[in-house]
Amino acid sequence: VPKGLPGWSCAEKEHLGEELSDVLLYLVRLADICGVDLGEAALRKVKKNGLKYPVERCKGSSKKYTQLANVVNEEEFRVDTAIEEYL
């Protein structure tokens, strides 16, 4: 999706905003019911992604973390264990 939605009318953008707001409200309600702190969950996920996909090895690539340079194979790089120890 191009940034700023060029070619979309104001009415289309407004409708999209309403739909995205619905999704957000449902998400917040679901998180509340489940006892999930969305702020904390988001921070943990950002940290986890930062460890899996360090900028210096990943910028411009869509490869999975197990396919990146310096990773011989999944057995030698247990990212989930490293992440849990870090967090």
Automatic annotation (TrEMBL):
Gene3D superfamilies, per the entry: MazG-like (1.10.287.1080)
InterPro entries named among the record's database cross-references: DCTPP
Domain of life of the native organism: Eukaryota
GO MF term (any one): nucleoside triphosphate diphosphatase activity
Gene Ontology biological process terms in this record: nucleoside triphosphate catabolic process
Name by which UniProt lists this protein: dCTP pyrophosphatase 1
Organism: Pinus taeda
